[in-house]
């Protein structure tokens, strides 16, 4: 009953950056969902996770789905997080500038032609090769109606972990979505730069869960309930940075529960002597963890996020109660 996928090339003017958009239209009323992969060009799990949506069977019952597997093409071709020419981080460039650098022009193109006009945004990222994060779906929870819908979508994704934020830093796809009143979620996972079939199934299945939640696909098995729900700013303020350059040795694992000031790692010299101790910045769960050993002074190595309290005094409290209590 669903038509075939079609593809369209969008470009920011002559010779400007562009994206290839794959679209599946059910021909029936319903939400317009946008899925982005590769906003960071080297985050291959999100790229293939998004891309394989467009090649597998998808019996769309309502609305339309648009998928951009590789959003920052120049960065992808350079196997880089950022644009090789201008050094631009697309995930810090929204709403963009049609007269700016190539990355700013790309942000303007994606923002104006794709995010604007969508009813839901799903932005698929991964950790970097140097840093791990758990597999989670996250988004803004500032109490607004779009954010509250987004929180429900993050639960529906079914990653097993939800991470909500009271505010968002500037320049993200989610920041623009917030300005436009569009519910939006993002996804992260460990093992940046590496493909893993189970993880790819997690990405693709998660998007299918979101589409089912929106009534665009027939409901499948209910998504996993969140085993852990973190709430915090998810930004740099809750990271511990290395006090010295050297070789970082983690002493905790992702999601470990830590107390404020607890020792979580150390920086060693080549003979294994301790140059500095790294302590947890606050009580909570280890949500980001440096993997690669070589660190400069000031490298953020351990990020900690507290578990969400059952009552934030926001509309999402009801979403939380349903999700956790089932
Ligand atoms: Zn990313």
UniProtKB/TrEMBL annotation:
Q: What range(s) does the Succinylglutamate desuccinylase/Aspartoacylase catalytic domain occupy? A: 29-214
Q: Which SUPFAM superfamilies match?
A: Zn-dependent exopeptidases (SSF53187)
InterPro entries xref list: AstE_AspA_cat, N-alpha-Ac-DABA-like, N-alpha-Ac-DABA_deacetylase
List the CDD domains hit by this protein, alphabetically.
M14_ASTE_ASPA_like
Q: Name one GO molecular function term.
A: hydrolase activity, acting on carbon-nitrogen (but not peptide) bonds, in linear amides
UniProt keyword Metal-binding present: yes
Segment forming the signal sequence: none
Q: Which UniProt keywords apply?
A: Hydrolase, Metal-binding, Zinc
Superkingdom assignment: Bacteria
User: Which cofactor names does the annotation list?
Assistant: Zn(2+)
Protein's recorded name:
Succinylglutamate desuccinylase/Aspartoacylase catalytic domain-containing protein
Query: What lineage does the source organism belong to?
Result: Bacteria, Bacillati, Actinomycetota, Actinomycetes, Micromonosporales
